[in-house]
Amino acid sequence: MIIGMKDTAKLVGISVIAGCAVFVCTLFLNYNIDIAAIKGEITTEAGMAMYQAQVSTGKVTASVSGGCLVLTSVVMLLFYVKNYIDTHSKELGILKALGYSGLKIAKHFWVFGLSVFVGCIFGYVSAFFYLPSFYDLQNAEQLFPEIKAQLHPLLAFFLIGVPAIGFSILAVIYACLRLRHPVLDLLKEKRGYKIKVNRGVTKDRPFLKDLAGSTLRERKTLVFFVAFSAFCFSAMVQMSMSMEKLSSKTMAVMIIVIGLILAFMTLFLSLSSVVKGNTKTIAMMRVFGYKYSDCSRAVLGGYRPFSYVGFVIGTLYQYVLLKIMVGIVFADIDNMPEYSFDFKKCAVTFVLFILTYEIVMYSYAQRIKRLPLKSVMLE
Amino acid sequence: MIAISNITKSYGTGGNKNQVLKGISLQIADRDFIVILGASGSGKSTFLNVISGLERPDSGSVVYGTSDITKLTDEKLTRFRRDNIGFIFQQYYLLPNMTVEKNVRMGADLTGNREYREMINAVGLEDKTGKYPGELSGGEQQRVSVARALAKKPKVLFLDEPTGALDERTGRQVLDYICRLHKEYSFTIVMVTHNQNIAEMANTVVKMNSGNIAEVYTNERRKTAYEIGW
Q: Which of A175, A213, A330, A364 is 20 to 30 A from B9 via CA?
């Protein structure tokens, strides 16, 4: 087996995200299916209004959180597959040199889909146990007849089977594409640096400035991942905080908790990837006598502005998305609060983001400082 | 002068403890060319790492002039390496996304050396300054790492099997550059190798065996890189 269980264990972040997405979607979609079955039994006007409001809320919550989280999982999965191939290119090159085709090797990447499967099962089962309480909560005002939580195998298949199969196929296809590099490039761990054609003029810039620029150019995927995680952090936290107005308090708390878990998880994963991807360069610079602060500023500091850009885009995205969704879905419902941009929540989220970013970076800095230089160089 | 006394170093704990250096003492004179010779597992690379400040010993001292580097904090040790030490490794460790010029500048900027292009010329790479390491042969990459190490004008140059990954012709060429630069810039060289022939190029040869110094001798006549066997 090319990829061991140990490698897939690193995908715990994807499992958590998939689990949270399925948890939220199971609650709302299962409820929507069960409440639709008793629609005919709702006789009061208030009951019908509540029914429509809850169905709409369910659709918004399931599509916003589900959609966001699927997108996040896809990006993370692709990132991990790419990262795995980059860090194991020598071994994969040897396999190709021995005569294994790219597709034959890529097929083993199906196990990456297991992380999604585990997360989906966990999310579905935990949601199913929570369903009775959720139903009671939704019907707290007793406007509907008693609703019993039913198991819907088709929903279970769409929330567990389809994502797991889909992600496995996606991992195999993407791995197949990434493994199309020539054998020698894989063996020599060449990652396709773009060589500048015009070498006539070399700017007389200090080494550290050049290093900062070239590190970012070389690791565009990491730059994207950092910006994307900041985007997710900003969108998830602000969106979940906005749910307070659009749903019940308990639901709002639940969504905020999930939003925070996911936001921290994504940011942590992206920053840990940034640090791991640059540890060797930092170690080498320290061997030569560069101070850690100089190394950190040149090698890691360049990602920070991109994280802020990601944060801003995430803020705009969540605002536009919620504005549109609320406008469309709740258009016919009376007494729904109008959704408007909340500067206070945005500021709180930004402070939280900066704190998280800097704390993670600081803790990694302490770890790198403690690493024996020899062990990093020998990796 | 580097005064090394009673250095011990172990790896592992309990039953798996392996003492790699068993109380080594040695004195290295300024501007000396010293080769540490030994078979694989003799402790020569660990010894080099300890005396260059890359690793800390379990006990003993490594004194440069009046400064014992085993007592320095990490920050002071980094500053010490910056001001005094150059490294050349078997695996080159060049930055793959930086050109030859920028890799050399990595060393030069540390000491504010604006004349770093001289060093590129000295290793015969003046026409390759804009190339990336991936576009160079092994020998050329090692010459870049020689230029990078010397561009910071170190007082002591440590080399760990610098020709280990090179063929004979390229290996001789790299050693020749190092020797010529040693004469020109007068720094101390401490080179680790398992190749007995290379030892004939040094002033002083230290033979290591199982974590101890087995023999120290001086060569009456130093051979050039093109005179030694391979």
A: A364
